[in-house]
Amino acid sequence: MPATRPRPLSPHLQIYRPQLTSVLSIFHRATGLLLVPGTLLLSLWVILLALGEGSFSCISLFVEHLIGRLLLLAWLFSLYYHLCNGIRHLAWDLGYGYAIGVVYRSGFVVVVTALGLTLATAFWA
Asked: Which of 22, 96, 99, 117 is the most buried (most CB within 10 A)?
């Protein structure tokens, strides 16, 4: 029997309403991906520091610039968010926090904690 109207196999992004749980899950994966190049650049920064003042001064100019500071701040937030959400996932692995209310509250706590840690680190330095 031929179908009169083709139906989508999965929800389309234009009609799908994102939920907090799906957004935080996607954001966890995205921050994990962003941590890789950021960590490589941070490693390069430390290597240049070990090579001497001349090598280190070129990358210090970038870090002292507004764009460099914003990228470093974004990397810090990615690190703290990924860390806090990883702790949340460990609690789920132990069987805690599956109730929908707890999921939403813990997601809120993860975001607020990551923001707080990022700001604390930024103003501490």
From this structure: 117
Among 10, 31, 11, smallest CA distance to 89 is for 31
Please indicate, yes or no, if residue 12 is contained in any of the structural domains.
Answer: no
Q: Which two tokens stand for residue 70?
A: 């914003």
Q: What would you report as the CA-atom Rg of the chain, rounded to the nearest whole angstrom?
A: 20
pTM of the shown model: 0.84
pLDDT single digits (tens) 100-115? 999 999 999 999 999 9
Count other Cβ atoms within 10 Å, centred on residue 93: 8
- The range of the structural domain enclosing residue 76 comes to 20-124
**What is the DSSP secondary-structure string of 64-98?**
HSHHHHHHHHHHHHHHHHHHHHHHHHHHHHTT---
